[in-house]
Amino acid sequence: MDKIELITRPIEKELEAFRQLFDSSLQSSDPLLNEVLAYIKKRNGKMMRPILVMLMAKLYGVLNDATLHAALSLEMLHTASLVHDDVVDESDKRRGQSSVNAVYNNKVSVLVGDYMLATSLRHAAYTGMIELVDLVARLGQELAEGEIIQLANTSNQEFSEEVYFNVIRKKTAALFTASAESGAISVHASEEAVRQAALFGEMIGIAFQIKDDIFDYFENAELGKPTGNDMVEGKLTLPALYVINKLGTEEIRELGLRIRKLEASKEEIALFVELIKREGGIDYAERVMYDYRERALALLPASTEEQYRTALTTYINYVIERNK
Fold this sequence. Notes:
Elements: H1 3-8, H2 12-25, H3 31-43, H4 48-60, H5 65-88, E1 93-94, E2 97-98, H6 100-103, H7 106-126, H8 130-152, H9 161-186, H10 191-215, H11 229-232, H12 238-247, H13 250-260, H14 266-278, H15 281-298, H16 306-321
Helix pairs in contact: 2-5, 4-5, 4-9, 4-16, 5-7, 5-8, 5-9, 7-8, 8-9, 9-10, 10-15, 10-16, 12-14, 12-15, 15-16
């Protein structure tokens, strides 16, 4: 049995119901809109965040319709943010496939993203729980704020891990935080359980982003991006920050600043990637990632049933051991 099967075993029926709800929500009577939505549906991944919503709901109570609508609301918001991000970043690939803006154009992408955001809010309202509507709205704010912080960071003279973690908490971890939290809220879990669930999701989300950042230091055609692509876009992630601060030379700091300003050549970035590997940047990032794994597992209640403990442990392991 593969990891995905182990993860989804406790929610097989509910996951199928969710997929049907997801497919039906990505339809329109307008031919162009329906075509773009069908393209997005075709590219959709393993539904890791909706799966987390449903597992946390079952961990703390009885999964219900509000759980499914909350999961759909968050997945719609997430997908819309990716469509918009590709426009902002001028990306023509998303996980090795052509992005929506590459297949159609920026105008269509922005409008379809807006349509999905509205659909997200409708499904949050279908839960009948104002706490979940508020959660989705706050998540939208956090995702946008994370992007703005990252843009502002291009002029930052410091190489702070604190700023890095602040960005990924808002850009990536916020989605996992909201997924775990909404699952608990949807089954009317206690305030303490909801807080624990949110922290659990945050730990997973941070580990997920660190893993994504590590990918950038290795060639992988499936991901659709070359080595060092983050730095080509002016982004310095955890492995790079560690090595810059470890070496601390004026030369390495100057290179870091030029990377942020998009002034470094591809040859300089390639040499810097090799330096980061030699100086332990990848090893450091992996240690931090596994530390977040342990923090997440420690948050599971002692009373957790074995099937849910197995599923959630496997979920975390999948996040940090995946190949793409």
